[in-house]
Design a protein that fits this description.
heterodimer; A: alpha+beta; seven-stranded antiparallel β-sheet; two-stranded antiparallel sheet; 11 helices; B: alpha+beta; eight-stranded antiparallel β-sheet
């Protein structure tokens, strides 16, 4: 009997360590629209109507937020201390390709309580509908009611193994495993929401088998959109302990990378803006767990 | 094999729960009040001119990580505080070099590990508080987490419940958490918590 347990145990380890290691390629038919089309659509909508489905979402804050998302797509802010960073990176990709699709989807969701985005049907749970508009002390996300809705419905819809024990939303779950994203879930979200060709190396526990990370990124950054799955706690230290768990915690969109005197300068997008940071080549290798390349 | 593993896990749990880190001084803020308040007010003035945040990233308080924040870009650099590059960088991006050096010195002396400005909203209007955390002298056991004293300086008087916990506003009894932590009253405008992370 014990041999079966051992077999099950090793099978479990195999799933964790290797199945999540992605070298998959997804190919979906492309979708696209322009910012102009999206603004024209938004201007025709009655922006004062309240929604019975979203009792805490204020119409003015909702539509002002949609306008802002169109005018400045980089302004998406996943909120302080939340686990929404992966949905933030996804928003960046969605807005690059299909701003009209985003605005139509959000408007349908607001009006009807359900909507479809690129063949993905969203019917959010009641607790999520109650929570949108109530998230507080998350920085500017507090007054961005469309983004609160967007991040909450994405977290409610897409699930990975990290969400296994916390599938239903409860107050404060935006900061917990309910909203967490592992690498394969991120790839799945990007490919199904953006209809793009996604290729990834790396995993949730083991770093990518890439000999020279800098050259690998340098080669891909111009021809693709590059997202990184990184251990943010090494570069944004939160305590003074020297021994830290080496696990990835954050998704970013890489914008530029250059090297001078063995120091690498990264410029990336996350949390509503761009950040420039200098790190050593060794630290670069240490922080990256996943490199996701997405067709432009 | 599994029994041994279970014993190890239980022993670890007992050790971790019974031997939590203890802060030596219970009234750290009162003892350091003048210096800490001075750091906060100096930071508030400097930050209003050109926004930034500072963290001491090493136990010895010699290495800082400085975040220089503009509308379009946040630059994050790490320096040893004796490095000339620090002054050069502050000068390059039009920061008050002397003012920031003084602040860094004071932070180092008082063991202030992190200072930044946190935005929040009341009735959809933007507000700011200054958040700083201090690394106190502690007794730490094996596996016990570090502890920091975090202080929040609001610009206006806040509401607290009968247990001294920070509330969202006067009308609701909802507890306001900052970075997932419940904060307790020191004065109407200043509150504190004990946390495992300095930021």
């Amino acid at each position: 009997m014990s041999i079966y347990y051992k077999f099950a145990f090793f099978l479990f380890l195999f799933l964790i360590f290797f199945v999540e290691r992605i070298q998959a390629e997804y190919l979906f038919e492309g979708i696209s629209s322009t910012k102009k089309e999206a603004i024209e659509f938004l201007e025709k909508i009655d922006q004062t109507k309240e929604s019975t489905f979203w009792p805490n979402v204020k119409p003015k804050l909702f539509y002002d937020n949609l306008k802002l998302n169109l005018e400045n797509p980089k302004s998406f802010y996943p909120g302080r201390s939340t686990n929404f960073c992966s949905y933030g990176a996804l928003s960046y990709l969605v807005m690059e390709k299909d701003p009209l699709g985003y605005v139509k989807f959000m408007n349908d969701l607001y009006d009807k309580g359900e909507a479809v985005f690129n063949n993905n049907k969203f019917k959010p749970s009641k607790p999520v509908m109650q929570a949108a508009g109530t998230l507080k002390f998350k920085g500017v996300l507090d007054i961005r009611h469309a983004e609160q809705m967007w991040f909450l419905v994405l977290a409610d819809k897409f699930k990975g193994y990290l969400n296994f024990f916390d599938k239903r939303y409860h107050e404060g779950d935006e900061n917990t495993f309910w909203a967490a994203t592992n690498l394969s879930k991120f790839n799945r979200m990007v490919s199904s929401m953006c209809g793009r060709h996604v290729k990834a190396v790396g995993s949730d526990l083991i770093k990518p088998w890439v000999k020279d990370v800098y050259s690998y990124l340098q080669k891909r950054i111009d021809s693709n959109i590059t997202s990184l799955y990184i251990n943010n706690r090494i570069i944004h230290k939160k305590n003074h302990d020297k021994i830290k768990f080496s696990i990835p915690t954050h998704f970013i969109i890489l914008k530029q990378i250059r090297k001078e005197n063995n120091m690498v300068t990264l410029r990336y997008w996350d949390y509503g803006g761009e950040t420039e940071m200098q790190i050593s080549n060794r630290t670069l290798k240490k922080i990256i767990f996943g490199i996701i390349t997405i067709d432009k | 094999m599994i029994r041994h593993f279970t014993i190890i896990i239980i022993s670890y749990q007992l050790l971790a729960s019974s031997c939590s880190t203890k802060i030596i001084s219970n009234n750290y803020y009162q003892l350091q009040k003048e210096t800490v308040d001075d750091i906060e007010s100096r930071y508030e003035k400097l930050n209003a001119l050109n926004p930034f945040a500072i963290a001491f990233t090493d136990k010895e308080f010699k290495i800082i990580s400085i975040e220089m924040i503009s509308d379009t870009l946040t630059r994050i650099y790490e320096f040893n505080i004796d490095e000339q590059r620090l002054a050069d960088t502050l000068l390059k991006y039009n920061y008050d070099t002397a003012g920031i050096y003084y602040l860094i010195k004071k932070m180092q002396q008082t063991k202030v590990a992190w200072i930044n400005s946190v935005d929040y909203y009341v009735n959809d209007q933007p507000q700011q508080l200054i958040y700083l955390s201090i690394k106190p002298i502690t007794i730490r056991y094996l596996f016990s987490p570090p502890k920091y004293i975090a202080l929040g300086y609001f610009r206006t008087a806040q509401s607290f419940d009968e247990k001294g916990r920070l509330l969202d506003n006067r009308r609701t009894k909802r507890i306001r958490k900052i970075k997932g932590q419940v904060f307790y009253k020191i004065t109407d405008r200043i509150c504190y918590t004990i946390t495992e992370k300095y930021r």
